[in-house]
Design a protein that fits this description.
alpha+beta; Rieske Iron-sulfur Protein; 4-stranded antiparallel sheet; 5 helices; binds FE2/S2 (inorganic) cluster
Length: 302
């Protein structure tokens, strides 16, 4: 029979053997916790810290646990196994039976430990799979063409974040409001800044692109890096009065009376303009979707 048995094989140093066993148990248990943490972090959108920490602990725990288990098994030991006779005498059979039915206490312990380590390893691998389900599921097909469509189409009313439609005749000049397609409040790709200026200020191309009585509507998503263009200001310093839509992230400035073309800052493209119309009840509505994708050009690369 083999001279080596699990756990007992490192007999040179039983304490080291015990430490290796405990390290394997702790590492596998930590791996299970790590996988669960990663899964919870992904499901709660906390993907900046805890997802990474959880997956790291899960992977590291499994690796460390396997190494510790190998040390516990003491794979470095040289083992010589004698070939056993192929037949047994009656006496030998009885002796073997006696041996198997009266296993020493340390053998029972060894079997229990092996079962525990096997279950912990299985649990940690399962936990790792659970932790990776979310991130791997996010590696779906690259979206193509979706950004050419938003929640806007002909006849869809503009409503505020409270759901209020905008009457054509209401509102003073130079006031900015964020609006969404009716029934889709909060939809990211469809957020629009709506502004009313004195109609004679608008350039011809701005009017042709779909302005109504001085109302103009532009995508709120900055064409530089996708922040919200949420600031409106009027520069009254002579010689001109300048109206400005400003993105607070990197101070890109757009001209709302001239198709929201970029004036200063890192943005190089105009904000897409939403063509407007008035519906039968006198409320502002979209005449169509944007004429081009919203957001920065980098969103189209890849
Ligand atoms: S994201 Fe708007 S200026 Fe950079």
């Amino acid at each position: 029979m083999s001279e080596r048995s699990e756990g007992a094989a490192t007999g040179d140093d039983p304490q080291e053997n015990q430490r290796a066993y405990r390290a394997a148990v702790v590492a596998f248990a930590a791996a299970i916790v790590g996988g669960v943490v990663a899964a919870i972090a992904y499901s709660t959108d906390d993907t900046d810290v805890w997802l990474g920490v959880g997956l790291a602990v899960a992977l590291g725990g499994i690796g460390f646990g396997l190494v510790s288990w190998a040390k516990y098994l003491d794979f470095d030991e040289h083992v010589v196994q004698q070939r056993e006779p192929l037949t047994m005498t009656e006496t030998e059979r009885d002796a073997l039976h006696e041996e198997l039915t009266t296993l020493p206490a340390n053998s029972t312990t060894t079997f229990r430990r092996r079962r525990l380590l096997t279950r912990l390893l299985g649990g940690s691998l399962f936990s790792l799979v659970v932790g990776f389900v979310g991130p791997l599921g996010s590696l779906g097909p690259k979206p193509r063409g979706e950004r050419n469509r938003t929640g806007w189409s002909n006849g869809v009313r503009l409503v505020t974040s409270e759901g209020q439609p905008i009457e054509r005749a209401t509102g003073g000049f130079d006031q900015l409001v964020t609006v969404f397609p009716e029934g889709q409040i909060g939809r990211d790709d469809s957020q629009v800044v709506l502004l009313r200026v004195s109609p004679e200020l608008l350039t011809e191309r701005t009017v042709e692109a779909g302005s109504i009585d001085g109302w103009v509507a532009y995508s709120k998503i900055c064409t530089h890096a996708g922040c919200s263009v949420g600031l409106f200001g009027i520069d009254t310093r002579p010689p001109d009065v300048l109206r400005q839509l400003v993105c607070p992230c990197h101070q890109s400035v757009f001209d709302p009376v001239d198709g929201a073309r970029p004036v200063t800052g890192p943005a190089t493209r105009s904000l897409p303009q939403l063509p407007l119309r008035v519906d039968a009840d006198g409320y502002l509505a979209a005449a169509d979707d944007f004429d081009r994708p919203v957001g920065p050009p980098t969103w189209d690369e890849g």
